[in-house]
Amino acid sequence: MMLAGAEIEDGGSVSYKEDSGNVAMSLPRAKAQEKSSPDQHIKPRREPVDIHFSNITCTVSLGFNKGHKQILHGVHGRLRPRQLIAIMGPSGAGKSTLLDVLSGYRISGVGGAVFINGRGRIMKNFKKMSCYIQQDDRLQGLLTVGENMTLAADLKLPTSKDKYEKGEIIEEILTNLGLYEHINTRGAQLSGGQRKRLSIALELISNPLIMFLDEPTTGLDSSSCSQVVELCRTLAHQGRTIVCTVHQPSASLFAMFDHVYILAAGQCLYQGTTKNLVPYLEQAGVPCPIYHNPADYVIELACGEYGEDKIQVLTSKAENGRSLDWFEDPQAIPSMEALRKQYPLSVLREQDAGPSVEETPQSNQRSVLIKRGFLKAKRDSTMTHLRLIVNVVVGIMLGMLFIDAGNEGSRVLENYNLLFAILMHHMMSPMMLTILTFPSEMSILSKEHFNRWYSLGSYYISITIVDLPISIVSCAVFSVIVYTMSSQPLEIVRFSMFFAISLYTVLVAQSFGLMIGAAFNVVPLEVVRFSIFFAISLYTVLVAQSFGLMIGAAFNVVNGTFLGPTLSVPMMMFAGFGVTLRDLPPYLYWGSYISYLRYGLEGFIGAIYGLKRPQLECNQAPYCHYKHPRQFLSEVSMSPDMFWWDVLALTVFVLVLRVAAFLLLKWKLNAVR
Ligand SMILES: Nc1ncnc2c1ncn2[C@@H]1O[C@H](COP(=O)(O)OP(=O)(O)OP(=O)(O)O)[C@@H](O)[C@H]1O
To answer: Which of 91, 110, 227, 254 is 20 to 30 A (C-alpha) from 34?
Structure first.
């Protein structure tokens, strides 16, 4: 079925045509013909907005003692509703910076003012009506198009809407954007153009009035470029203001934009309709040669290829963006006063009445994010499957290497090495995994958080909860394998019963002490030992993960990969392995207090050789120096009854590192802006 009001062009695509206020989507012919449903949800439900910006400056620091650089030099401009506007200019002209400032993404070092419908911008309200789609598609690659959309709808639409209402909206958007047939395709398997359209589709769920897109055509072939720009144009003509940065469009792509805003070294060269660019250049005394793409020519001018003086001429002619002479109908452009009259303050009252920051309550955000986290964990072979496999394989290898070392008096030192190796395993694998994977999550977090999908708190709680079961299972599998293979003190039946208790105690962290404390009197000693061993292992994993999270939040993959293991070396030194705590020089003893591995090792030793462990068997050697566990404990200078202190210290580490990682994340999200 044909779209209402659509016309077929030579290229086989369908152009938009306004027909009594209805605008049909412009899609390639085949897709357009499939479309039949009216696009009722996709149309803006609010009055369009008129954006005016004045004297915008942006200065960045070049680092300590290196001074500052001014990127934008007091530019002005007007972004009219129902327009697709391109910000163009050579590389480094400040296009992305201007887009960052206009979208509210960049806040530090920014000067000037932005007005919405004649009044100073109120960031809270502005964010409710706008969205920012960055250049790199920050999508959940493991989830299908349908899942991405459903989860976004659950986060962005009011909870009062049921799944059928949300489903209708999703179907409509996907159909209109030509993505419906890819509903079951995973994000990572989409083509560049489809990914871009999915990024737009995700933001369209909340039906924004203003959309900012950073280089939506970069990396796409010409047909995908046209599709994306045509889509943006249709969305704009429905009543939105859509602003894109574009690098160097072809003549046909350039003609698809309604307006252009051209920058050269942070100053405005031209602002007006696409059609008026050629007459403007002619009037400025730099006519565009015949058969030359005006977009190419103006970029060459902006690069200074025809002389720096031409840039000066154009900048002063455009009055650095103040001049509206080259707009469609300059006389019809309302003044700021007229806009204020047209949009009375009661509009602001309506905007204030909506949700304060995010669209849905925190409890909903958390449950949707947890659902999303588990779905991703199920699909992610690195984070989940590989992690489990590594724990099994390393567990078996260590078990084989130290087989039966746990109950033999002549192998106490070997067993000590095993305990330290276990600690290393628990420290390195979760820490490195977090350091390597978290930075890629960070870019998605930054986009979704900025576009008001959810709060940082909800995100943080959800990642903590989602990871816990995987940590517990991998740790349990590893512990059982190593513990049994190396013949640490154990009675299988009792161990199984109390293993459940130890797992439960970890899950319910607050009641950890209470549970084991209550159980201590009745639990067979061997199971207590295993529980302690397991708890210490799990705590070490949690501390190492928190450490990884903190580094992952603060640094990129390269720096994080360097810093994680490097910072871990002193932790190992101060743990009491190699140099026992007794032999540590007094002036370095403080190091043992800040090494979480020390508490881990002490906890392990307490579990295996503490709790009044009787004399060990001595079958494999004529003389066993450490037959009496007390003797060994005194030589490594570890007290057998420090378990609760160790747990307390590790708990403090988990809490401090988690809080520090949260604060770092919060700082990072704002610092990049
Ligand atoms: N945080 C920063 N610190 C230092 N310089 C910066 C910073 N951000 C941007 N710049 C510089 O400001 C200039 C403008 O950057 P911007 O990314 O806005 O340019 P652009 O026109 O979008 O370029 P491109 O088309 O290549 O993306 C560039 O020279 C860039 O190196």
So the answer is: 254
